[in-house]
Amino acid sequence: MKVVLDRQPFVEVLSNLSLLAPSRPTTPILGAVKLSTDSKGKTPYFNLYTTDFEISVSVKCQIKKIMDEGTLILPIGKLLPILRELQSDDVTLESDLAVGLISVEQESYKIVGLSEAEYPDQSAPSEQTTNVVLPKEQLTEAIKKVLISVSNEPIRYCLSGIRINITDDKVNFISTDGRRISLLETNPEKKSQTNLGTTVPPKALQLLRKFIQESEVANIAISENYSKFTSKTFEIFARSIEGSYPDVKAAIPELHKIKAELNRSDFLSCLNRISLVTNRETRAVTLTLENNKLTLEGQEAGASEGKAVMKCNTLNGSGLKIRFKIDYLLDFLNNSDSEKIIVQFNSNTEIATFNEPDNKNYTYLLMPIVLRDEAE
Amino acid sequence: MNNNSLSKILFHIDMDAYFAACEIASRPYLKGKPLVVTNHYRHIVLTASYEARAFGIKTGMPLYRAQQLCKTLKIVFADPDKYISTTGSIHELLLTITDRFEPLSIDEVIMDVTQVSSNYCDAAKLAYKIKFEVKKQIGVTCSIGISPSRSISKYASGVNKPDGLHVISKNNFWNELKNIPASEIAGIGSSTKLLLKSVGVYTCIDLHKCRIEILLKLFGQNAFHLKSLILNDAVKTFYDREAAKSISSSHTLIKDTDNIEILTSFLEFLVWKVSDKLKMEGLTATEVSLSIRYEDFTHSNHSTTLKEPVNSTSMLYNIGKAILSFYLPLKKKVRLLCFRVKCIEPRYKQLTFLNMQKSSRFEVACQKINRKYGNFTVKPAMVMLFEAFGKPEKVIPPVFTDIYGKTYRATR
After folding, report:
1. Please, which residues have CB within 8 angstroms of residue B21's CB and are 6 or more apart in sequence?
2. Bridge-partner residues for B407, per DSSP?
3. A366 and A351 in contact (C-beta within 8 Å)?
4. Predicted TM-score (pTM) of this structure
5. Contact flag B352-A179 (C-beta cutoff 8 Å)
């Protein structure tokens, strides 16, 4: 194999793929990328394929010229830093059996890779799937908003994934770590015939978010054990996370006693300031909602404390003092694009609901913090 | 004699054939049978049940000799964790009465009940109550000696063994001392006994009356200790415990192993212990660490800080397993596992909408059994198999299966 490639876009694709490469691979297959030439179309392409045994990604990257067709499997951990450091835009990459030779003008680098026989093949399992097509904007927004609530603790493993439920005319993206829930409904362009749900590793959706920028739509195919995201330029294939995902919809209250509308940027800036004085371990902020007034308080006993009062529009009920982990509030506000937000409470020990008035499909639910005496 | 110094009422509570009793409590089918508890190397008798003692079997006797004396002898391996845990349960029970007691050993306690019993009649009633509760809740019997002195209480507890009660009250204290040989007092061994005999000290009353100058000549500075033995009534408070900063549990394996299944089972076993302690103390873990000592005595430690404090057994077990995976693939055999949590009493509690902290019915049932019959009457099957047979020894390197079902073994 011998090709000439444009360094910058190739480095970008490799950087995205490096998300799957562990820093200390336990087997050479992990962290290796398979590069195959594809000259069937008008423009020459590299097909890049990598896997971490849970997720596999196949992505097309345009290259300048193919001199010799072929396949090369190289470790991303070696290939990417070398390409990043090179100055020239045109890079020649050629293979000598399993050895890759990178050359630009006066420089050349050799990297020992793997033979094709050592690398897993790319044949997809044949399982009945449910398919929907989602536009890029909806998909990007959904991933951005649900990624924040994914659990990163090995407590209940299924919570470390994002639940995708495909129903008749909706695709629901759900994530929770037990303390908060992100729930977003999207309307697919092409509707599904059957209802199905699966739990997808967040890395697969992070990759999807990166690669979908080049496409308009993505096809989502899910089965009980797998999920596949495809467009013209990429294919992401992920094994589902096992375990029964909790029924988060059961946690959503039907009625709320207290409802208020807040200016998102005011609330965010107040919280950012209060976060500077809150306890580093508990990170608790106290919100007191009175008539058209929201008071935010944070303190670290004997070290610092702060209080901020902001205007709000109390729509229903008032007079509540509730505590939240400030980081969970900041996560929601930082990932929201809305000018206003609607907050709804029942009591200081029950789940609170946060919505964007202009996006009824998105709901963020957050459990409060209680003092030990209150909890008992 | 002056009775003013005999103002206290002290209990000496001694468990009867303790290790054997613990084993019988957790395995009722052994009740009434001659039983010895032995060490894992099958060398000596650690404890013999009263049925075995009837055959002349004694603590410290070689096991083969015990088997010669009793052909139907049942042999049980010692389970130190179980005995320690049972002792903890007994201490908890005693703490409901008073905290003025000192554990003297794993199966002995000296307790000051002066504040809870106004006279020896009340004290005897209380002693019966303790004996009843220990038998009911823990499943073992104990003998109690009551007197105004530590050493005489200890002697008294041995008078009516097993399941006995003996009272030496303030009023007949001095009379009783006349009949108690000095050598019956804990701390007076055979050589001390001979020296005491040489100066005419045979009984406790002789020892009490003996002039300190005589004893000083024989025993030097130890004379003061000997002299104070009879009337010593000082009992410390059980625990002036500070809030626990960390709770740990470790286990030295009977045989070094690199079998992941066995190690995982032992990890589960340790997590149960730690989680149980956390729940009893009302604490939650904020940091979890797992230390491993290898066969060559080198050791390694990995820890993780938790976002939210936890005390649930299943959560701690999952975290423990995740930490254990850092050690894989194992290069050496493991000798010891130690599971440790840094803990706090949380003032702020983050609520969850999932019942993530709730113990499963299985966990609750295991806790109840283990608290009653000792840790760990219920333990992972793999742990029991390993303890019994020391095998399997097959090394299982981690295997990865790719998304297409093809498997790969780790090379590192």
Report:
1. B15, B49, B139, B140, B141
2. B401
3. yes
4. 0.57
5. yes
Query: Given an 8 Å threshold on Cβ–Cβ distance, is B408 in contact with A226?
Result: no
Domains in chain B: ranges and CATH: 11-167 (3.30.70.270), 172-238 (1.10.150.20), 242-388 (3.30.1490.100)
A156 pLDDT above the threshold of 80 = no
Split into its structural domains, chain A has a count of: 3
B307 chain-A contacts, CB cut-off 8 A: 152-153
Same domain for A206 and A149, yes or no, is: yes
CA dist A258 to A318, A319, A344, Å?
6, 9, 6
* Residue A172 and residue A111 share a domain: no
Judged by CB atoms closer than 8 Å, whether chains meet at B319 and A178 is answered as no
Looking at CA atoms only, how far is residue A104 from chain B in angstroms? 34
CA atoms within 13 A of residue B320's CA, in its CB half-sphere: 33
Is the separation of the CB atoms in B146 and B165 below 8 Å? Answer: yes
pLDDT of residue A276: 92
* Min distance B322 CA to chain A CA atoms (Å): 7
Q: What is the pLDDT of residue B95?
A: 84
* Closest by Cβ to B349, choosing from A154, A238, A372: A372
Do A178 and A266 have their domain in common? no
Q: Which residues of B touch A325 (CB under 8 A)?
A: 350
Is residue A193 domain-shared with residue A294, that is, in the same domain?
no
Substitution target in A26, A54, A122 with the highest count of B β-carbons within 10 Å is A26
Gap between the Cα atoms of A284 and A297, Å rounded? 9
pLDDT above 90 for A308: yes
Domain boundary among A230, A250, A270: A250
pLDDT interval class at A373 (50, 70, 90):
low
Among candidate residues A118, A153, A188, the one where a domain is terminated: A118
Residue range of the domain that includes A184: 130-250
Check CB contact under 8 Å for B350 and A367.
Answer: yes
Q: Name the residue with tokens 């957790």.
A: B26
Sheet holding B74-77, edge to edge: B45-48, B35-38, B74-77
Pair (A329, A360) in one structural domain: yes
Look at residue A124 and tell me if it is in a domain.
no
**CATH number of the domain enclosing A334:** 3.10.150.10
* Nearest by CB: B351 against A29, A226, A349: A349
Cβ neighbours of residue A224 closer than 8 Å, sequence gap 6 or more = A127, A196, A198, A240
- Best to test chain A binding among B308, B399, B404, B409 (most A CBs inside 10 Å): B404
Say whether B292 sits in a helix, a strand or coil.
Answer: strand
Determine the Cα–Cα distance for residues B207 and B204; give it in Å rounded to an integer.
Answer: 5
Indicate whether A62 and A90 sit together in one domain: yes
Q: Is residue A375 part of a domain?
A: no
Q: How many CB atoms are closer than 10 A to CB B42?
A: 11
Rg (CA), chain B: 26
Please check whether residue B306 touches A, CB under 8 A: yes
Residues A192 and A286 in one domain: no
Say if residue A276 is in the same domain as residue A347: yes
Domain-embedded: residue A125: no
Q: What string of pLDDT tens digits covers the 412 residues of chain B?
A: 555 568 888 999 999 989 899 888 888 888 888 998 887 555 678 888 888 998 999 887 888 888 888 888 888 888 877 888 788 888 888 888 888 888 888 889 988 888 888 888 889 999 999 999 998 888 889 999 999 888 899 999 988 888 899 999 888 888 888 888 888 888 888 788 888 888 888 888 888 888 888 888 888 877 888 888 888 777 766 654 445 678 888 877 777 888 888 888 889 888 888 888 787 776 788 889 999 988 887 888 888 887 767 777 888 888 898 898 888 888 888 888 889 988 766 667 777 777 544 556 777 777 777 766 665 677 777 777 666 655 544 444 455 555 555 555 554 3
CB distance from B407 to chain A under 8 Å?
no
The closest alpha carbon to A149, from A359, A331, A345, A342, belongs to A331
Residue A232 within any structural domain of the chain: yes
